[in-house]
Structures are given as structure tokens and as C-alpha cells.
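Budget justification, computational time. The allocation requested in the original proposal was used primarily to generate C-alpha cells for proteins on the priority list. As evidence of use, we reproduce two of the resulting records. The first is shown immediately below.
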Amino acid sequence: MECSLRSKGAVKNSLAHLQGHIPAGMLADRAGGAPLLMLGCTVWSAATALHVLVPAAPSPMALLVVLRFLVGIGASVAVPALASMLAQLLPHAKRPRAMSTAYGA
């Protein structure tokens, strides 16, 4: 079965995204959601910006795989970090509406 590079990148990104949710949730509960969200955005942004180096790399495919994995890891912290932040900031009765608004937007 043949897959395009775009498809392979999406699969690797989604695998990293899924693998990052559980550790990110545990970290968010311990360290707080805001610092973790900032770290995730930093990793995601840096990995995205470094994609410009792929064409000039000695091994472009290897670099692309690593960068796509880092993008997925950086993005994976958003949901657990936001859930932790909302849980700490809002009373129990207001959380469902806030979470549905945040995740639905």
C-alpha cells in the first residue's frame, strides 16, 4: 500500500499526539496547566519553525519525522493543560459549560 509523504506525516503526528495525552495530563495535575500549555506551545512552535531546515538537511526524511513527532508532542498538551486550568479555576457546577465551550470553539 502506497502512502504519500503528507499521509505519513499526519500519521506520525497523530501517534505522537496520542502518546502525549496521558503524561501531559499527569504533568498538568502536578505542575499546573498554564506552564505546561506554554511549554507545549513553545515546543510546537519551535518544531514548526524548524521545518524550513528539512530540504537542506543531510537526511531530510529523518529530520521531518523527528520534527513531526515534536509537533505532535507539543500539540498533545493542549487538552490536558486546558482541562487542568479549568478544573482549578472554576467550581464544579460551571466546568461542563466551560469545557464544552473551550473544546467546541
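The second record produced under the same allocation is shown here.
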Amino acid sequence: MKRVSLVGTVHEEAGLASISGLLGILERITPEVIFLEIPSGAFDDYSKGSRRNLESTAVSRYHEMRHVDLVPVDLPTQTQSSSRITRIYTGASRARVLSTVG
């Protein structure tokens, strides 16, 4: 039977929250999939190691030891959202112009 485990973390080490602690939890629950709190547009940076914090370091170490699927699930960043909104607005303006002409 499949199991879902939800592990809440903090972004920086503090008190008992540590890279080794999170890595230990991952080793005990042996996930097949880890959902990451990052937008899909940031996944390449994440996988190249340019985004380092408690979670990313622990997950990267776990990923080196075991095959696990990493899935980004966060919303786009403000910059990505602004770009998307600009494209939608531009597209809508063009459609309005075309419907007025036609």
C-alpha cells in the first residue's frame, strides 16, 4: 500500500532543524517522490546546486544516495508571474484590435 508522508521544514538550520536531521528523516521514510517548495522555472537552478538551504542540501544528498523523483510544486516567482501577466495582457490587446478590425 502507498503512503504519503508530509514533512514540514524550515529554510535555515535552527535548533533541532538541521541538514543531518532532515536527511535522517528522509532515510527513515524512504520516499519515492519528493515534492519541492520551488517553482518549476527554478528547478534547473535547484538541480545545479545554486539554491542552497536546509531542504535543498538534504534532498540533494538523499538524491545522490537513492533514486527519487523530484517534483517542483510551488507557484511562479513574482518575476515569472509578471512576465506571464504581461504576455496575457499583450495577447488580449492584440485580440481586441483584431476583433475591432474584423
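A brief technical remark on that second record: Residues 67 and 74 are 22 Å apart (CA to CA).
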